[in-house]
């Protein structure tokens, strides 16, 4: 099973590393390494060089980590390979955080040297009809399909309950070997359906947060910015619906395997390929849209004479938004693609803790 571990490692983390490497080219043109700048400054020669330096630095770092991981997997027993892969993930995250911090600090220092005239006055554009005049997300009614799949799976599990073995395989390692079992009961059999319902709830909440996230428009060309931002939200909402359905189907497949056991090779292949497909689709979408939709519809037609509000003081390390005066709970990330929460609002903490609590409770009940 060594080849499965290697294939999964390469297929999963090469695209992921590529998205991290290209991060500066996916963010808005009014943000550079988590620091607000004008479009003119963003396209200046020094910042173009800085982005190229980031690409080379992160490419070398991630490449060395991947090669080291592959070599380590060749020299250790198969049972230790999951530990190697887990260690690689931790090191990849740590390396990305360190590199981003280095370039964020470098960007802050560079911005401090810029003449005041290059830091254009802050201009805010607000479209009061943004949510009412544009279709921003796919309706949560689409999740009725997900719910139907979960209910049908539960009904089939109950109908064929007698066919399910008395001992259930609950956990597998990277080699497809069983590492934990449990006695058959209605709780263990239907636990997968409970997790399906929890996932559906989380994906529906994510869809709602995409709709409610803070509006961010380009004052230089608000009409184009509205179209791009609306398309950006719709595409990620569509991905959210599709990814949720794929995960629900994966759990139904695992439940089907309880009734009609399949070979461990088939189980491993399906269990690895479904999450991999979701990751690949997310990366393709990130490259085709850019943050806030900046890559949708060709280059910006704005003059670059204005930029969004200079709110650097609310962005800790360029990545954590903390602004108690801002009523918005969800805002666009400055580094990467998607949204984050306003940690300065108590509602954001309640939101995060609530989701974590639901997941923990459901996992304990299901096990």
From TrEMBL:
Residues 324-349 form the DUF5808 domain. Keywords: Membrane, Transmembrane, Transmembrane helix. The keyword Transmembrane helix applies. It holds the Pfam family DUF5808. The keyword Signal does not apply. The chain crosses the membrane at residues 6-26, 54-76, 82-104, 142-161, 194-211, 236-254, 266-287, 348-366. This is Membrane protein.
